[in-house]
Amino acid sequence: MFLAVARTGQILGASKRLGVNHATLSRRMTTLEERLKSRLLIRRTNGCELTAEGEVFLHAAERMETEMLRAQAGIGRLDSTIAGTVRIGAPDGFGVSFLAPRLGKLIKRHPELRIQLVPVPRSFSLSQREADIAITLERPEQGRLVSSKLTDYTLGLYASRGYLATNGDPLDVDGLKAHPRIGYVEDLIFTPSLNFSGVVMRSWDASFEISTAIGQTEAVRSGAGIGILHDYIARQYDELVRILPTVSIKRAYWTTYHESARDLVRVRTVADFLQELVSVERQTFL
Predict the structure, then answer these.
(1) How much is the pLDDT for 252?
(2) What does the pLDDT average to over 117-132?
(3) pTM of the prediction?
(4) Fewer Cβ neighbours under 10 Å: the N or C end of the chain?
């Protein structure tokens, strides 16, 4: 119960996740604090925050959770039915353009499984259970995490046919300076892997900054300028033209989940399905 409160940041949200009464959960947290003789939560009208003691207890509780899952697996009491909720956090481009149209196959395969897809341009805290599985742009180097590479993918320079008909093609990278450029909002770039523009030219100096890959794609489609787009997304639109084809950027996607979820059948099933999807459509990304 404490883990649910810590991960949602709300007693109300945790009670809904656990399927218990809000008042009952609140009393249980009070009892826990009394037995530990420590204040674990700062309760506010809009949620809860962990105290310093609460942070210490969170790490201990996660270790307990991991050991319990291992014990269940060891004695054959693991959740053998593929049911329950699995939340996937993903970059917006991959989540919207690739996963959203394909995850329905997984639901048909396992009707008792509930998938939550959160395709937003930010990182996810697996230790705080913001997601059960995160699609990351880099392999995490810290934390008790299980990671495996999904696929490499490429990006290139694109403009719309209408834009090029009016403004002409740049002959080289230096020629891009004469064109309006579309890029990320720099102070919202949450990982160095998103610094695509720095690979192309020292100062991209975008005139139109958008914090999502899908938004950038739509801006380029509208003729607002030249952008660095994911090839597997841009190829879906006939009006987009790849320019300066020798300029190519390579990146990778990884699946990552907390090691405490290693023995959860529903999480492993979804992680395996993601690998299966990408394996079948590998050429889409390259």
Answers:
(1) 92
(2) 72
(3) 0.70
(4) C
220 is written with which tokens?
Answer: 């380029």
At the topology level of CATH, where does 84-151+253-285 sit?
Answer: D-Maltodextrin-Binding Protein; domain 2 (3.40.190)
Assigned token pair, 142? 């810290």
Place of tokens 């975008």: 206
Q: Where in the chain is the domain with CATH 3.40.190.10?
A: 84-151+253-285, 153-251
The DSSP string of 159-176 is EEHHHHHHH---SSGGGG
Residues of the chain with CATH 1.10.10.10: 2-74
Quote the strand ranges of 102-144, DSSP E. 113-119, 133-136
Going through the chain in order, the beta strands assigned E by DSSP cover 41-44, 47-50, 84-90, 113-119, 133-136, 145-160, 181-183, 208-209, 226-230, 240-258
DSSP code, position 247: E
CB 95 within 8 A of CB 218: no
Average pLDDT rounded to a whole number, residues 183-209: 75
Mean pLDDT, the chain, integer: 86
CATH of region 2-74: 1.10.10.10
97-101, 188-192, 258-262, range with greatest mean pLDDT? 97-101
What is the dotted CATH code of the domain comprising 153-251? 3.40.190.10
CB 218 within 8 A of CB 160: no
